[in-house]
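Fig. S4 source data, part A: sequence.
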Amino acid sequence: MDIATIVGLVGAFGLIFMAISENAAAFVDTASLLIVVAGSIAVVMARSSLGEFLGAVGVMGKAFSRKIDDPVELITQIVELANIARKDGMIALEGQDIGNPFMAKAVSMLVDGTDGDIIKSSLNRDNDMMKVRHEMGANIFRAWGEIAPAMGMVGTLAGLVIMLGNMSDPKAIGPAMAVALLTTMYGAILANVICLPIAQKLENASVLEANNNELIIEGVLFMQEGGNPRVLGDMLASFVSPKSREKIAAA
């Protein structure tokens, strides 16, 4: 679980609640919630297909789970596999405990004796499709972040129209003004506290996972060509930060 996401969301909503806690009831309005939350969801669905919308809900889990392998551990494991393959042959890689699904597929293709060009094209295709899925999910939440404030403005205008139509009735002015202001507030919170941060998280996760997949592709192709495992670690170290390269050298 990504602690930063949980702490960030809880902290943001906690601070907002602390600021309004003395008059919390005044900040709850059903009509405003319907306009902003339900309305923005409906508009997002209208901008995408049902499959894309539901897929974004599934991808959203990556913003909270953060199940992305440490590239240093991946490089260390690839070098270990390369040593095994150089010593005992590719067939010795069969049955090795490999937690990363992308690496497991790549090693399986090595064991089967698949041609290097086919391995490269297949893995690159998988990596590209992963990027597409993550990009579509991030785009859904980014679109939601754009639409929520707009729906808030729609609610604001609706509240003003109601208020202006009841200027002769002082009791009706307050509720209409509440709708006008709260919809703007709900739209800003939904966009800036939830939607846009999740979109950014998904984009970051996609970049990190794609980087891991690319280093796996490079390592597997190096193994397929029979390269020296001692050189492999130094070659793959370019995928990580200088500080992490010291860990690889130590390993």
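Fig. S4 source data, part B ends here. The chain is about 80% helix and 0% strand.
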